[in-house]
């Protein structure tokens, strides 16, 4: 029996060496993987979804998790393995294509969901491209350029399958059985919290000094400049936000005279500098102080343009029976004041020329937003009309008359839903002793209400003192915030 054990050990060592050779022959370099995934990055990059905030945020979050997965695969001696489910919004394909995992959003993009469970870069890259129905021919050519791969191709196709008794005898874990079990078992809230509580607590404790620093900087700058608020367009980390506030603080010290016109305004750190359609001062995070200074110097001109914009909104309202023209930042792209003014002006001229017979104040109390990327009017679940700037005036008149009563009912339901949502957030925060409970903008009020109601039925001691974000996936953010999907199991 001692000889049998030695033979078995020898076979294990030989097969392990062969397996490593096979894996090396099938592994892409990090640079090759980036090149191979270029079509995928082009299809899902958040910058191409600027007109669609929900799709942009989902892609941003999924890319963060994908990059983490790819980085782990490249770490020497990486052993831990957890299947990762991702969802991306992808540009539409040709009309006749189909995929059972795809669904089309209201904006026309298709949502693609897939699970990564491979242990090498090549297989992972191929899985990503195949899941999004993208060509893999360039990946094969990249891989076949290696002479080592050509020589080891026959070995790469050799399956290594050991009898189940081998694992029983040696005590080693069967990788196929582990993979099947991981795919069978669906992630639950309790199991995920058990696995990730320690990591989240560690990150949260590390971030606490920075969080205090962020609150201090925000309070002092808001008070000194008499700002209404300071916000961020994206979910940057605490350290990144502190750095942005330090930059603004230095500008205040160096050029205090240029900030005299910001009283009562909201400052938003975002991707571009200017003034937003909502009248907020936008500071581009990639811009230097010189660009910020120019924005502050132009504020008087921006304020004049804003008055003209408000006049246009009022004129459009009068032409459409008193319906209010609004701009909702969470549902619309972050437009500059100039872009939004041009949109309003074009729509106003079309309405004025059409002379639609709306009775004055007949639609008072209703709301509408203008959209430049739609071709047909629609009614949002929150009660506001979504009107394309290219909409035919006659079609617009018929649609508004037909949906006016439903719009009023939706607006009333929205008010009730917002009250219920706030009450449930407060109750959940208190019950679980959370430091903070919030949701991503892409999560609707109805989804948040459903999530909180089910949370309140559970006992979750893991959440005490934590920051909980309701999202579409499970994740621990870099500052210790716990992200859970709103439809958790």
From TrEMBL:
Q: Where does the secretion signal sit in this chain?
A: 1-19
Domain DUF4460, which positions?
Answer: 24-134
| InterPro entries the UniProt entry points to | DUF4460, DUF4461, TCAIM
Listed under GO cellular component are: mitochondrion
Taken from the record, one Pfam family name reads DUF4461
Keyword Transferase in record: no
Where do the DUF4461 domain residues begin and end? 187-489
Q: Which UniProt keywords apply?
A: Signal
Which domain of life does the protein's organism represent?
A: Eukaryota
List, alphabetically, the PANTHER family matched: T-CELL ACTIVATION INHIBITOR, MITOCHONDRIAL
Q: What is this protein called?
A: TCAIM protein
Gene symbol here is Tcaim
